[in-house]
Amino acid sequence: MRWIVKISALSGMLCMEYDIASHLLKWHKLSTERTMLYLYSGSWYIGMLRIYGKGILSMTRVQKRSARRKSRGQQNKSQQLYDNALKALMEDHAAEIIPEFVPEAAMVIEQNNEIKRENIRADLVYLVEYKGQLHVLNMELQTDRDSNMAARMLKYHVELHLAYQLPVISVVLYLFETSIVASPYKEMSGDENLLIFHYRVIALWTLDAEEYVKKRIVCMYTFLPGMKRATVSLLIQAMDEMRQRYTLSQLARHLSRFKTILQRSNMLSEEDKQRVEDHMQVYDSLLDGQPWFEQRLAKKAAESELQVLQQLALEAVDEQFPPLAEFAREKITSIRQPDVLRLLVKQIYKAPDEATARWLLNTLPSQSDTK
Asked: How many structural domains comprise the chain?
């Protein structure tokens, strides 16, 4: 009996047949219930597997794969929005905020980027003093359910410990109500514990907004819309207190982050959220016409355009040449020229093979070239 695989190309639906009798026969014996063989390499994929003789015809999964990619892209954009908001907040107030999340911890290095992290993809990393001893603090922001969260935390924990030879405090901050992977993470071999990893979990919706306002811990007010017992009157009071403490430029940054949390939070009804946003318009009138504010708006618009173009380029590579995704991320995120990114998106979609795509990425101008 001959076993035939039909292979289709994404472009032009060119078909070819290839006899892989022995390999397919061996695989078929291992899995009698599922006869789908799905591979993806460059612009080619096995779109259909038909076994001539005794067998079944299985459908392609291209549409499902495309839908999953779009869903991941939307989640990544949403996650990036909150990542940026939190990182900006920590840049301004890390020394004040860290002791609220990790009692007895005090900042040693105030700037997150002073700890070298070239090969470490953790969110926020700080050198802190905890109970009289130096530690590395790793804070990860999470907005949705992630079943691999604990394993990723373990990976970052080990990388940071090896890099700095210091004990590591690992913290996951969940901004919005979702299912949580509880600590500790255990690696089991039957009944035997091979590894137990403890990390801290902070669920924002379990923290009490009233307590922070009562104690006037203003650095935490950005998080209030995501906390329990957050009410319209409490949030308006918090905004008024922020106005008294911060300059107009500082207030603009805080209100932007505050609104980001408010819009996603389910601690308030949609009607109550609108009432809070209506009050925020009072501050908009103070900001309008300020030269620094107009400049900030222009800069923000340029940054938003750049982020969108970078994301489009990354998605193009991920769709066309998945093996290059990680390599492309390093290259694309360093590009600050919108025109270069627009051209790259077109070139990636037109690239005939992975080698061409890699060449395109390797020839992108570096940051030093654009100065």
From this structure: 4
CA distance 63 to 71: 12
Residues 355, 361: Cα–Cα separation, whole Å: 10
Same domain, 71 and 198: yes
Are both 102 and 164 inside the same structural domain? yes
Provide the residue range defining the domain that includes 164. 65-206
Residue 43 to residue 11: CA distance in whole angstroms: 8
CA angle 109, 114, 119 (to 5 degrees): 130
On whether both 14 and 123 belong to a single domain, the answer is no
CB atoms < 10 A from the CB of 229, how many? 14
189 and 242 both lie in a single domain:
no
pTM value is 0.57
Task: Report residue 301 CA to chain centroid gap.
Answer: 21
Indicate whether 278 and 326 sit together in one domain.
no
On the 0-12 / 13-18 / 19+ scale of CB atoms within 10 A, 328 is buried
Q: Which of 207, 129, 208, 124 is nearest to 171 (CA)?
A: 124
pLDDT tens sequence across 159-214:
999 988 999 999 999 989 888 888 999 999 999 999 999 999 999 999 999 999 99
